[in-house]
Design goal:
The protein is of the alpha/beta class. The protein has 26 helices and 29 strands. Bound molecules: GDP-alpha-D-glucose.
Length: 735
């Protein structure tokens, strides 16, 4: 493995220029601390924007800036003011951010900012390409850089690329409104591994990939041309030790050494032991639901007036993206709301809301966490929300109550918190009441569980498990590629082929000799295919068999006059050298009367699906249905059929978007083995793309050459990518 390259919009250090000299201040955010363990190793480089525009950097300081960054293992991508405006404040924060947080009405679809986003993503990709070799590992972060993976992949096809999205991935219904939705998906699919905080985002992403790009998805693997992309969830943790140790240390300080903030908060508590502090900390962002929280607090004070003069809400709103208009409006709304509520409820000795609009040093943050009885975090949407985890980590005596929005990704792992719907004021007011009155033992029990989990799956684990998964994925790919039918391997096969006196070839039709078609009748053979099959059929010493799940009428029309040997309906019928089809297996079909109505009810309830009736089997096709819905129905049908067919000698084959019910004693494996016994073959070959072909791969002897079309899991010895490669391979048998 080469070096690790981390790439994100911002670097782990912030640069400041004052009086001609440069200072680099380490960033405190979750991403910077999270990646520390990955970045601290010697062989790692972090690429990002320095936070200063090209216009702000005096020419004579360029070199010094690069040196200052290099000391922190970082390298900058230079961005002009216009680029920052279009790429960061424009497309990233006025299109993607609101859309991905379900604020459709705030999303602006501007062609200019999309173009700048593309151009700046290319700049980031170029910066990587300048430094990366094929054996490096590249980890791209977040929504500002979604096109980078594909841009890098084009130039470095084999390099390992991981992408992690820190914000939610919205449902398909939301994502589809984006004019550049396909480009964004294709950009991301340049990765080997795509990570999300939680499974819901992962499933939304997979559904968009299926619906918008029509790609095949199996579990969490996406199949794209000749690549497999893995998608998985990795809930981001925190630097638990850093927060709990700081909290412990603050608690042990002598009063003189304590911060002004802590002393003041402490004093309020001593004066009124019943006083309770509710804490709310967020960047000032509409996704965080700060305004709603203020309304809910007002609602609480009206519903439970006994807590007037007792409960204080401490709001820390950290300035963010203040040149985006929505954020300016929000700031005004919150200023006004705080003013109004304080105006309405304040008494001489009590102000219900303490409002800080600023960023605080880490030390103060710890004091806020440790002094607050309740953390009240109610984002309307939040990818994860690390503040919730940090609050719990600082509660070293395990007291404290966390009220958390179920719309935050962290709610998935923090079941012991009091989870609320941020839009339900009634529920929120009652939950605050419950939190205020929660017995200490219960608080400690809940927090013990939470702390154990946060301690175990900390941010270092998060980063490591993402990296391990990326490397595994690369290895899996490499192992898979080792089965690719390369020129060398083909040559060995051709040598045996050439020497063999008697050869037997089994060729599947759909997806192997001919491309997959939504309408099976349209997948008829083309002229080139007939020519290829004619040549193979006429080759001295070669017995060619087309082996398919199709019905005999279609194959009669297409191939009987050609006199190829054919096995259809998975092995029920056989035709040799132009003779009429005859039964190869003795099969019953009296079960059909029972199964047909079941399939019909599925057709009625699944638009786009249809039944294909063969002599000895029934097939339910769902390739024209909505992909998610079709898969869901297929699972349902499997359950229904399993209970129905019980003792009957039937089996259900799950093909490519088709489920086929037929007698258990019929399959391509059994049929091919029967033919094999008819002569003394010294070269046996089988090729196919689908699940039903796996019977041949399994049952033919070890010496057979078995080839899978596509990269799906298989028992075959080799694989080729597509039908074009199948035909090329068969042509080489003729040389
Ligand atoms: C995005 C996603 C996802 C906050 N105020 C101060 C301060 N902070 C620190 C907190 C925490 C971090 O900033 C905020 O992280 P969040 O996760 O809560 O939220 P976002 O900034 O929106 O982050 C989010 C995250 O990415 C990670 O993937 O969880 O869903 O939106 O670490 O401690 N730190 C200091 N002073 C402050 O005033 N020092």
């Amino acid at each position: 493995m080469g070096k690790t390259i981390i790439i994100s919009n911002r670097l782990p250090v912030q640069l400041q220029i004052s009086n001609g000299s440069i200072t680099a201040i380490p960033s405190v955010g979750g991403l910077a601390t999270g990646m520390k363990s990955v970045h601290s190793g010697g062989d790692s480089l972090w690429i990002g924007w320095s936070g200063l525009t090209e216009e702000e950097i005096p020419e004579d300081l360029e070199g010094e800036i690069d040196d200052a960054l290099a000391k922190h293992g970082s390298s900058k991508v230079g961005l002009t003011e216009d680029e920052v405006a279009g790429f960061y404040f424009g497309f990233s924060n006025r299109t993607i951010w609101p859309l991905f947080h379900y604020f459709l009405e705030y999303s602006e679809f501007e062609l200019d900012s999309w173009n700048t986003y593309k151009a700046v993503n290319q700049k980031f990709a170029d910066a990587i390409l300048e430094k990366a070799t094929e054996d490096d590992v590249i980890w791209v972060h977040d929504y500002q850089l979604m096109l980078v993976p594909q841009m890098v992949r084009e130039k470095r096809p084999n390099v390992a690329i991981g992408f992690f999205l820190h914000i939610p991935f919205p449902s398909y219904e939301i994502f589809r409104t984006l004019p550049w939705r396909k480009e964004i998906l294709e950009g991301l699919l340049g990765s080997d591994l795509i990570g999300f905080h939680i499974y819901d985002y992962e499933r939304h992403f997979l559904s968009s990939v299926r619906r918008l790009l029509g790609l095949e998805v199996s579990f969490n693997d996406i199949y794209q041309n000749n690549r497999i992309i893995k998608v998985d969830s990795f809930p981001m943790g925190i630097d638990y030790k850093k927060f709990s140790e700081a909290a412990l240390e603050h608690g042990q300080r002598d009063p003189e050494a304590q911060s002004e903030l802590r002393l003041r908060l402490g004093k309020h508590k001593t004066n009124d032991p019943e006083a309770k502090f509710l804490l709310s900390i967020d960047r000032l962002d509409y996704s965080k639901g700060i305004a709603k929280r203020l309304y809910a607090f007002e609602y609480f004070l009206n519903k439970y007036p006994q807590y007037k003069e007792k409960v204080r809400l401490i709001i820390l709103a950290v300035p963010s993206r203040s040149n985006v208009p929505q954020y300016q409006l929000l700031k005004r709304e919150i200023d006004e709301l705080v003013g109004r509520i304080n105006g309405e409820f304040s008494t001489v000795s009590w102000t219900p809301i303490w409002y800080f609009y600023r960023s605080m040093p880490f030390e103060d943050l710890i004091d806020l966490y440790t002094s607050s009885d309740i953390a009240w975090l109610t984002p309307l949407r939040d990818g994860m929300n690390l503040v919730a985890k940090e609050y719990i980590a600082t509660r070293t005596d395990r007291t404290g109550v966390l009220i958390l929005s179920e719309m935050a990704g962290s709610a998935n792992e923090m079941n012991e918190a009091l989870l609320i719907n941020p839009n339900n004021f009634e529920q929120i007011a009652d939950t605050i009441y419950e939190a205020i009155n929660m017995p200490k033992e219960e608080q400690q029990q809940r927090n013990e569980q939470l702390q154990k989990r946060l301690q175990r799956y900390n941010v270092e684990k998060w980063a490591q498990s993402f990296m391990n998964s990326l490397l595994d994925q690369k290895e899996r790919d490499a192992a898979h590629v080792s089965r690719k039918l390369t020129d060398n391997r083909l040559q060995t096969i051709l040598d045996v082929y050439g020497k063999a006196e008697k050869r037997l070839l089994f060729l599947d039709y759909d997806g192997t000799l001919a491309g997959f078609h939504n309408d099976p009748q349209k997948a008829s053979p083309d002229k080139a295919l007939y020519e290829l099959l004619d040549a193979l059929h006429q080759q001295e010493g070669t017995d060619l068999y087309l082996i398919s799940g199709r019905d005999k009428d279609t194959f009669t029309r297409w191939f009987l006059a050609k006199k190829y040997n054919m096995i259809v309906e998975h092995g029920v019928w056989i035709s040799k050298r132009g003779e009429d089809f005859r039964l190869l297996e003795n099969v019953k079909n009296d079960w059909m009367e029972k199964i047909r109505p079941v399939l019909e009810s599925f057709v009625d309830r699944t638009p786009g699906s249809f039944i294909e009736e063969k002599n000895y089997s029934l097939a339910w096709h769902y390739r024209k249905t909505d992909p998610d819905f079709g898969n869901l129905r297929a699972t349902e049908l499997t359950t229904v059929l399993t209970s129905l067919i019980g003792t009957d000698d039937l089996s259900v084959l799950n093909g490519n978007k088709v489920m086929e019910i037929k007698s258990s004693n019929v399959n391509k494996g059994r049929a091919s083995v029967r033919i094999l016994g008819e002569a003394n073959y010294n070269f046996v070959f089988a090729i196919g793309d689908d699940w039903t072909d796996e019977f041949m791969f399994q049952e033919l002897p070890e010496s057979a050459t078995t080839v899978k079309v596509g990269r799906q899991k298989t028992q075959a010895k080799y694989f080729v990518e597509n039908t074009a490669e199948v035909r090329e391979l068969l042509r080489s048998f003729l040389k």
